[in-house]
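So, could you explain this one?
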Amino acid sequence: MKNAVDIQVVPIGADQIDALRLSLERAGLPTADLVLPARQFFRFDYEGVPLGYGGLEGQGQDVLLRSLVIESEKRGQGWGAAVLEQMEAMAATFGAIKLHLLTNTAANFFKAHGYSECPRALAPDHINQSEQFKSLCPSTATYLAKTIA
């Protein structure tokens, strides 16, 4: 696995939303809620080269892992695991105890990193009321969660 410590985390400002949107769209991930409140997005770089993007939604003990996308030319090299490790550490410093996510394609990746599949009905109310849960991800998307702190 790549070393997460060597990854630079760059908060995404309004002037960089288009690059984030393009990366998410190329990966087939939702983009309709990027500018809504209570979302924080980040670009992850290694030696000045963008690896991908990630986002967290909400605050408190239960936080939604809003997005995690690795640029196609960087996939299969361990960067996804390293970026996920960074995102979990950031969420914990923000006060999160548990991360939640929905995925159509990456359930096995997240399970390999300690996430457990859960019935959607067990998601905390504010997670269940997120745009991801309500409308952006289909009902067939896999709901996973992990205690991080």
